[in-house]
Amino acid sequence: MTQIFDEKGHVVPVTLLSAGPVTVTQVIVEEKNGYTAVQVGYGEKRLNKPELGHVKDFAAKNGKGFAILREFRVMPENELKKGDKLDVTQFAVGDRVNVRAATKGKGFQGVVKRWGFKGGPKTHGQKHSLRAPGSIGSGYPQRVIKGLKMGGHMGSANKSVLRLRVAYVNPADNIIGIRGAVPGRRGAAVEIIAR
Predict the structure, then answer these.
(1) For residues 129 and 167, what is the distance between their CA atoms, to the nearest angstrom?
(2) Where in the chain is the domain with CATH 2.40.30.10?
(3) How many other CB atoms are found less than 10 A from the CB of residue 176?
(4) Helix or strand holding residue 53 (H, E)
């Protein structure tokens, strides 16, 4: 994240994202698949033979292809063709977008961090139970109720943030600035969907 200044001189917090260009690798049509969508590819990595076969028209001679493939539903009247490139020029300052990514993974966390529990008292006969969850239910039924807030895996979940505003577009370097924070760690794959 960084900050920029708008035309009135106000500070605007933005998240800068490297956006594309992405290549349309497959056009999915209603007649053949039952729905309409496009599959796009981004980045570069070494692929195995089945993966290379899927993107054979775009694969390099050294066995490298797209690192990320994503599918997006589109309207039937969409005019995208296989091989088309999409970049930041389709966005303008002021546009509203939806942003989706996997949140930062935090591993196994206890109830205080994961759910905001208060924890037990430090004194008055307590020992080693400051961050413990405490009682988890009554005597009946004799089992742990499903959905109970307990310690466990935290983060690494898909999160969408809706109606964020585009604050900055740099077509020369393929950088887009989204006003506010977006989910995901540094280097994560982020989907920017025009509204």
Answers:
(1) 48
(2) 1-19+88-105+155-195
(3) 26
(4) helix 49-54
